[in-house]
Design brief:
Dna Topoisomerase Vi A Subunit, Chain: A, domain 2; 46 strands; seven-stranded antiparallel sheet; 996 residues; 32 helices; six-stranded mixed sheet; 6 domains; alpha+beta
């Protein structure tokens, strides 16, 4: 056998006799070495560990508060890291820089050599070269550390010295391997294509061969390489392999015969073994056999424990146990075994439950620990015996023959009567295994739930009882047993309060992924793909009510985005069969009147009808310019981006948006014109998300302390529908970046943290009052064309609603294909959103014009368009603010108006008309535009403006609206004259004109 280059001698030589290794765990060890001061190797009040230097120059430590065994540096690493010897060598080598990375990596690799095959070696020949004796290193790779401890201090406690105990344990394990048909190999050779390929074991890479004989006397073997990095090569079979072979059965039968011969007496004519444990694999089986248990294990993952197997095992043992792995697969397979309905005896199998805390520890590959061998790294053999003592079966009742008062068997209709009793502990165990438990809703409320694979459903106590009854009925259990269940007082809410508290994680998303759950499949959506996952293999919990009740088939992409030669984002439609896609297209056609009305006037009726039919759902019709097509495409991409954003449940602090569809068409009056399809966007979201709708017409909505009482972590979206002009939209903006307080009536107020709180959407025909940067960065606007509209005011040639386009109601009248199209499109919108590094905005010009018009008011706009018209002479000049305010109040019949409110409207008007309001060059140090000029007032008798004193000036506020590409004018508009009066006002260093 190859001796690895990094020996324990190398380790001690390069770590000061192991002192560096010890120092890693005990930084103050140098002080303890000099003073013989005690130190701690585990959590304890009083230090009880010591260190000493051995005659060979190496250091050892002992923890007298935990066994008092002297350990060198390597043994200390084994104890602290819970690993075998070879893994400890690797950890030390990496931690202390001993050996190259290639050398360390090769520790768990076999030696592979290739030579020419001998003439008499046929292709396909296998040659096995056994070891004379299994090395200690290889034994420690197979058997856990606590197994050695158990043997040394329990089985061979009568041995005098530690060396004798150790040798006895090693000898015991070598004999055990032989008894279980395990043989260590020096190497094995395969003859392939006239080459002899030999794999040779190394110090930390053992190779075992398990040799078996079938009932028909045919033989096969299983080659096991526990340290193979390639899982597919970790074990493989040679010979006439039988996937239904049960390893260990022959050994158990021999053990039973010996037990029977030894234990049979008149008082005990049919002695049985105390137990047989059905293990998941050979490694677990060997470790339990070393603890003294009778073990069996399957030959492959396709093995089925049949009724015949079970009858034979029950003949030999009082109890049959299983000990499943802690991972989901192991637990599910064990449950299926114990619930096998081919015979009632499967319910009698007792399950040994490894502690859940074991999963919090990691094995040498960084994976959660899950099996018996992992358990015995951290727990003693006695701890496992305790688990065996409390192992429960799934049969939750006991039965015995009923006796009358005289002790005779009761007979009814010629048949013996049985009495049945329920076991509370086993009822709870059965329900726990069936996925039942309690879930904490809030500090005051618990609810019963059932988890079935990854599905979670809410249940009531009567549902739990009905589940038990249904289980018995499907197993054709006697009427007397069902009556016992009906009458049992233990099957009540009070008893079910002992069910475990479960905390399923319902997050159907990750930072860069979103899941969609359907009846037949689950989709995992990422920026790169939409992956199909079988429902039983999804590791995400989902409420059963959240499953989309459709069977879907994944389709090819329906659209793609690209950047054109001008750097503009464009949309290419590949498939427009989806009706919801068509809705987004139609509500993005902001130039439809030009395309379908103005540009078709010169065509015949037949030509118009043909164009309309051919381009009914074409976002980029040939009757539009390239710029107009691009604008409509961006509107559609913006909607798809927003839809994907609302689908993705993950809330990023960098994307705190409220989605707000608004009419793109500028408003020409102060009316509220709806019907453009804003609510259809959220109707689509309702098909796949849990949406809570609130009434936006209620201006006092947020004054209700219980407004969010229906909001839970299961709420995906809060949708405020049709907000009125006076609705406090700014309240919603703060909710996009913070927690949400939920105050249910009669219950304690709670807070849903930001990352679990719903996303928000709002539809309105009015713009937000605050269009400042703080608010604007929180809004994801959608621009809605007026393709869909009513015609009550006679503004259009016709009225149009979605049913006119599709001939049916959206969603409620879909057939199977139409549902599949829509669900695919929605998933592709989510994929599109996840692929975009930044927000895709709608073309904002019309939206902002509408917002600015709404906010400044139509009366103000009408006044300003006259007051600041080109002919007024009030552009590109200083206009006294007092004059402008009073003129507006008189024209609009406004009585109360603050200067600040007026100035805000002026700024909005300037933004709307693309004018520069109060150029920076003219502002004073306080950021205000002021000028020394005559004081003026309005004379109501003469109906004109007058100067109060021509000889005296004072500093007063001014307005200056500057048109593009004009120089600054220092003159003041004088409302007291028919024309502009040029008045020289002496000011220090003032120039009459300034450059722009």
């Amino acid at each position: 056998m190859k001796n690895y280059k990094i020996t324990k001698e190398d380790i001690f030589q390069k770590t000061e006799g192991g002192l560096d290794i010890i120092r890693y765990y005990v930084p103050e060890i140098d002080e303890c070495l000099r003073t013989k001061k005690k130190f701690k190797l585990h959590e304890e009040e009083t230090p009880s560990s010591s260190i000493k230097k051995m005659s060979d120059g190496n250091y050892v430590v002992a923890d007298f508060g935990d066994g008092g065994r002297w350990m060198n540096g390597i043994a200390l690493v084994q104890d602290k890291e819970k690993v075998e010897y070879g893994e400890a060598i690797r950890i030390i080598a990496e931690r202390h820089g001993i050996g190259s990375s290639e050398e360390i990596k090769s520790m768990y690799e076999p030696e592979v050599s290739t030579t020419d095959a001998a003439p008499d070696q046929a292709d396909g020949t296998w040659i096995f070269n056994p070891c004379q004796e299994v090395s200690e290193n290889h034994l420690r790779i197979i058997f856990s550390e606590k197994v050695f401890t158990y043997l040394e201090y329990t089985t061979y406690k009568d041995k005098k010295t530690p060396e004798e105990k150790k040798e006895a344990a090693l000898s015991h394990l070598r004999k055990l391997l032989i008894s279980q048909h395990w043989h260590c190999l020096e190497s094995y050779t395969i003859i392939k294509k006239r080459k002899a390929i030999t794999f040779t074991a190394t110090e930390f890479y053992p190779i075992f061969r398990i040799e078996e004989v079938r009932k028909d006397d045919k033989t096969f073997s299983k080659v096991y390489q526990p340290k193979s990095k390639d899982k597919s090569r970790r074990f493989f079979y040679h010979g006439d392999f039988d996937p239904q072979f049960l390893h260990g059965l022959n050994q158990v039968q021999r053990a039973y015969e010996e037990w029977f011969d030894d234990q049979e007496t008149e008082e005990n004519p049919d002695p049985k073994l105390p137990e047989i444990i059905f293990c998941t694999g050979g490694s677990d089986a060997l470790n339990l056999a070393a603890l003294g248990y009778q073990v069996i294990y399957p030959s492959s993952e396709y093995f089925k424990l049949t009724k015949d197997h079970l009858f034979e095992l029950n003949r030999m043992a009082d109890n049959i146990f299983t000990c499943p792995d802690l991972d989901a697969t192991g637990q599910l397979q064990n449950l299926r075994l114990c619930l096998t309905d081919s015979h009632e005896s499967y319910l009698n199998i007792r399950t040994i439950e490894l502690p859940e805390s074991l999963k919090s520890r990691r094995d040498q590959y960084g994976r959660p620990c899950k099996d018996v061998r992992d358990f015995l790294k951290f727990y003693r053999g006695q701890d496992f015996k305790n688990l065996v003592k409390v192992a429960l079966m799934l049969r939750f009742w006991d039965a015995h023959i009923a006796l009358d008062r005289s002790g005779k068997e009761k007979i009814r209709y010629g048949k013996k009567l049985y009495e049945y009793k329920l076991s509370t502990e086993r009822v709870l165990n059965f329900l726990k295994k069936s996925g039942f438990g309690r879930r904490k809703v809030n500090d005051e409320t618990m609810e019963f739930i059932q988890i079935d694979n990854n599905l979670v459903r809410q249940v009531k106590p009567e549902d739990i009882k009905a589940f038990l009854l249904n289980f018995l009925r499907t197993r054709f259990m006697p009427e007397e047993l069902l009556n016992v269940v009906h009458r049992s007082p233990m099957l009540s809410a009070a008893s079910f309060d002992s069910l475990p508290i479960l905390d399923p994680d319902f997050r159907d998303y990750e930072e860069h992924a979103q899941y969609m759950f359907f009846k037949n499949i689950t989709w995992k959506i990422t920026a790169e793909s939409i992956e199909e996952i079988k429902n039983e293999k999804v590791n995400k919990m989902v409420w059963e009510s959240r499953i989309i009740d459709k069977s879907v088939k994944k389709l090819d992409p329906m659209f793609e985005s690209y950047t054109d030669e001008n750097g503009r984002l464009r949309l290419k439609v590949l498939n427009q069969d989806c009706m919801f896609f068509r809705i987004l297209i139609q509500t993005s056609r902001v130039h439809w009147r030009k395309e379908f009305e103005d540009n078709l006037e010169d065509l015949s009726n037949e030509e118009r009808d043909a164009y309309r039919a051919e381009n009914k759902f074409n976002i980029s019709g040939p009757n539009l310019t390239d710029e107009e097509c691009q604008e409509q495409e961006q509107h559609c991409l913006n909607k798809m981006f927003a839809f994907g954003y609302m689908m993705h449940r993950y809330k990023a602090m960098s994307r705190p948006w409220i989605v707000m569809p608004m009419d793109d068409t500028p408003n020409k009056d102060s009316g509220s014109h709806g019907g453009t399809g804003k609510s259809l966007f959220f109707l689509g979201l309702r098909q796949i998300r849990n949406v809570l709708q609130l009434d936006g017409k209620n201006d006092n909505l947020f004054n209700d302390n219980h407004v969010f009482e229906q909001v839970t972590t299961n709420t995906d979206i809060i949708y405020i529908d049709d907000a009125s002009r006076n609705f406090p939209m700014e309240r919603t903006f703060s909710m996009t970046t913070g927690d949400i307080t939920v105050n249910p009536k009669g219950k304690t107020r709670t807070s849903i943290p930001y990352h679990l709180s719903p996303k928000m959407g709002l539809t309105t025909n009015f713009a937000p009052d605050d269009l400042g940067p703080s608010s604007m960065r929180r809004i994801l606007f959608l621009g809605m064309s007026n393709w869909y509209h009513d015609n009550k005011m006679g503004m259009f040639n016709e009225a149009r609603i979605p049913r006119d386009d599709f001939g049916k109601e959206l969603f409620t009248q879909y057939n199977e294909k139409e549902w599949n199209d829509s669900l695919n499109f929605m998933a592709q919108c989510c994929q599109f959103y996840l692929s975009q590094p930044k927000m895709i905005e709608a073309p904002m010009e019309n939206i902002m014009d509408r917002a600015l018009t709404n906010n400044m008011g139509f009366n103000f706009l009408a006044w300003a368009e006259v007051f600041f018209s080109k002919e007024s002479g009030r552009l590109d000049i200083h206009v006294p603010t007092t004059y402008a305010i009073e003129d507006y109040k008189a024209e609009a019949n406004v009585k109360a108006l603050t200067p600040n409110g007026f100035n805000q409207k002026i700024k909005m008007y300037a933004q709307l008309k693309h004018l520069e309001c109060n150029p920076k060059e003219l502002l004073n140090s306080e950021g205000r535009l002021t000028k020394n000029w005559y004081e003026i007032k309005y004379d109501n008798r003469d109906k004109c403006w007058q100067k109060t004193n021509r000889k005296k000036m004072k500093t007063q506020s001014m307005i200056y609206l500057r048109t593009k590409d004009t120089e600054i004018n220092m003159e003041v508009f004088d409302p007291t004259e028919d024309a502009i009066e040029n008045i020289e006002v002496p000011q220090p260093d003032e120039k009459k004109t300034l450059p722009f």
